[in-house]
Amino acid sequence: MSQTPVFSCKDVHVYVGDKEIVKGVTLQIRPGETHALMGPNGSGKSTLAAALMGHPGYRVEGEMFLAGEPINELSPDERARKGMFLSFQYPVAVPGVSVANFLRAALSARRGEEVPVRELRQTLTEAFDRLNIPKSFMGRYLNDGFSGGEKKRLEILQMMVLQPTFALLDETDSGLDIDALKVVADGINTASGDEVGVLLVTHYQRILNYVKPDGVYVFMNGRVVRSGGPELADELEARGYDWLEPEAVAAAGGRK
User: Fold this and answer.
1) What torsion do the CA atoms of 34, 14, 171, 232 make, to the nearest 10 degrees?
2) Cβ(164)–Cβ(175) under 8 Å?
3) What does the alpha-carbon distance between residue 135 and residue 124 come to, in Å, rounded to a whole number?
4) Overall domain count for the chain
């Protein structure tokens, strides 16, 4: 297994206009590793995920690398073609574009060539079966009229089909009941494998009962204020985030 990180960033700052939202984040994720980024609402987790993917609404300072290659100057679609994947906290509906056509276009772009119809059909059938999604969804418009759980399952199905190098999963567990959570977690574990790195952004510890993290980061006020192993997620579940507020204030130089 390669020891080159599938993704790394160094001292990343993210701005909306003149306002600094993310205040110096350094991460390193190797093949086969899953790391959890946990924090309360409004801490900047989703902003960080979107900025790492290249969202044009943010100004980013710092260094970012995908499999050792600098990606600061790459657009979101270029990052996706090279193997980055972002699952959205709030997946949007795309009326007029069927799920099957969307997946075929995305997979063709990822590979740099058209995917044969027979291969596509087999790939989609296996993924739909694994995530317990009815085959009828292939003909439906992307996320149009889907429930929250259906949208999240489809996000993980996209990950399974596209086989990224590095996956950013932004609150994939939000809005899921326990049965859907287990199915989605199984999909994440299946899609991850030994060569994929995952950064799982979440509020809650519950998904980490099924997707075991190699590392956990606590993100508050735009900073990583503590890091540790899976036991840190258990401690957060038991104690919440308030007990780490002094560390967040200290990291900010005494400013709340």
Assistant:
1) 50
2) no
3) 9
4) 1
